């Protein structure tokens, strides 16, 4: 099992993912322990009876439970801030937070919490409130500590303030951003795969995806290269039926431009997140480098807007399959019997409903916490939209038989057929959910990259 070492420097994306999702162990580096030993014990100093008072506000939060992986990420970021030695906490307090993370103990935090996703940290350290253990079982925090062989910590006068001061809301929002960027980097490659399958099944052309020196946007170049790689060797596109006019519909021809713009937005958000991780110190009276959530909040909102655009073009490609006038010879709705069956028609309606919701999730003035929740919903929505496009394109490729798809797209069709086969009207929801899981887990992308090598 991987161990993440928290020192006085910046955490990486991989560190955050390892702790939030992979159950990595957490330890303090020697530099952090030295900084904590030599730290300022007067920072945020409060009278001795104040820790108990400061622990009370987090226990007044309300609403649904925040996602444990976001809480764990916020805990890790707070530990990184404490490890600078500028907050006045003792080494044993920082070690205890690392021990909670290593033991898989996650404080229960409510969505409506003025102190953000680290609001439950001080109570959990002292055995108050609720927590989930490594198996996800909900229990009193004191019981979770005892099960892990830990005892409640007696916070010193200044330590409760150190756990709450600064920008705890930023810790949760930044965790959202790091995980969203991580997920979208994989998801956008899968979106390229889905688009390639749609182009192939609609008898499009890959000639529009050649590198363009007149518009050297890196995201556009990467998306175009992926489409070319996935379509390489396609018997469908090489067939007489596949030799359609060079100018396909915009949703096919302009795929690299739209996908590429979304990719470039993701990389901008990644840069913002990396800078925020590198400025992870606390707010102290003698330090003018106050952290602020504005850059992260704007990146979250911008990313949600880009995700909505990606979902919209995917839905438009899917819609072409259902219209016999625009699908180049496919039956209406991709149904066995268009006069009696609805085929994939209602699945595309579901796509359209998701896209409409995603467009609503892009406010003109995003706030960090609200934008973080909306982006999380947006990434989930895009995952589902991509799953429906994959299912629909796979069905269309089956209907193109005996024309042979490319080796890469054929690998996706085989994977999907392990979870359901085409036929007369049937209950599609389980197949959609299975495909959502294959997209989210990276299985679809893995199947393609086993043929093409790593996509851009």
From TrEMBL:
<dbReference type="Pfam" id="PF00221">
    <property type="entry name" value="Lyase_aromatic"/>
</dbReference>
<feature type="compositionally biased region" description="Basic and acidic residues">
    <location>
        <begin position="38"/>
        <end position="52"/>
    </location>
</feature>
<feature type="region of interest" description="Disordered">
    <location>
        <begin position="35"/>
        <end position="66"/>
    </location>
</feature>
<dbReference type="InterPro" id="IPR024083">
    <property type="entry name" value="Fumarase/histidase_N"/>
</dbReference>
<protein>
    <submittedName>
        <fullName>Aromatic amino acid lyase</fullName>
    </submittedName>
</protein>
<dbReference type="InterPro" id="IPR008948">
    <property type="entry name" value="L-Aspartase-like"/>
</dbReference>
<dbReference type="InterPro" id="IPR001106">
    <property type="entry name" value="Aromatic_Lyase"/>
</dbReference>
<keyword id="KW-0456">Lyase</keyword>
<dbReference type="GO" id="GO:0016841">
    <property type="term" value="F:ammonia-lyase activity"/>
</dbReference>
